[in-house]
Amino acid sequence: xxxxxxxxxxxxxxxxxxxxxxxxxxxxxxxxxxxxxxxxxxxxxxxxxxxxxxxxxxxxxxxxxxxxxxxxxxxxxxxxxxxxxxxxxxxxxxxxxxxxxxxxxxxxxxxxxxxxxxxxxxxxxxxxxxxxxxxxxxxxxxxxxxxxxxxxxxxxxxxxxxxxxxxxxxxxxxxxxxxxxxxxxxxxxxxxxxxxxxxxxxxxxxxxxxxxxxxxxxxxxxxxxxxxxxxxxxxxxxxxxxxxxxxxxxxxxxxxxxxxxxxxxxxxxxxxxxxxxxxxxxxxxxxxxxxxx
Length: 293
Fold this sequence. Notes:
Glutamine Phosphoribosylpyrophosphate, subunit 1, domain 1; 2 domains
């Protein structure tokens, strides 16, 4: 009931999957674990496979041995479709003989791609070509594959849900998620994931500019401020409100009072409900009264 791709980035030691379907909550078919690998179990998916996959990897089983175990415990295996990958580069995809038409799969360098009830094999062909040809992060490549499959016709029954998740062992316990975007009940779930990933990139870039401003030496402060000001010219929405506020306070710090007043007024245009906070800070002589006069 879906098309998906599981994949790794060896250099960054990332793993994850991307999936789209006409079904509600298609995200449940997959699981990714940092420093280990990823699995999807779809068509008439068996969720038991997800945890069992990682359990068997812990027993040093190969993907072929894991699939054979799935066969042993599941009388309906021929109705299933499975894609598996490990961080050391093992990949395997399986399509049962009783999966609904069109169903098929392909494995390649660092990925396994599979789909069922698709408009045709061109969906898988488009996904694998896009994954192989796209440069950038694993999330970028997974999204490119998913969008290519969607553009090629995707699920023959239509669209409803999609997900991309990428994980990597982090510095803090329990903080392994790099990207996790889920869309439910949307006319264009894959395109919506693309919009969110684009916004995420913008926010990360903005965060780096804010960090650079915070860490800038006295002599470099103005230049760093101007970089952030320029970036925010085309990003006047609530997503960037903290960066706008940072700009306003640094302008005051550098004696640019008139510019700061303009900035804080712009903030109120973006987020009018901040007026209460600003009035309080004006009363505390932390902000110029001209902002609200």
